[in-house]
Amino acid sequence: MLRFDLHVHTDLSPCSRLTVAELLAHARGLGLDGVCITDHHTMAAARSVTEGVQPDGLCVVVGMEYSTDQGDFLIFGPFEELRPGLTAEALLQLVDRAGGVAVAAHPFRPGREVPEALVRRGLCRVVEGRNGRNRPGDDARVRAWERAHGVGVTAGSDAHRLAELGRVATRFDAPVRSRADLIAALRRGGFRPDPRPVTPSRAPGSAAPRPRTPG
Ligand SMILES: [Zn+2]
Ligand SMILES: [Zn+2]
Question: How many CA atoms does the CB half-sphere of 132 hold within 13 Å?
Answer without folding.
Answer: 28
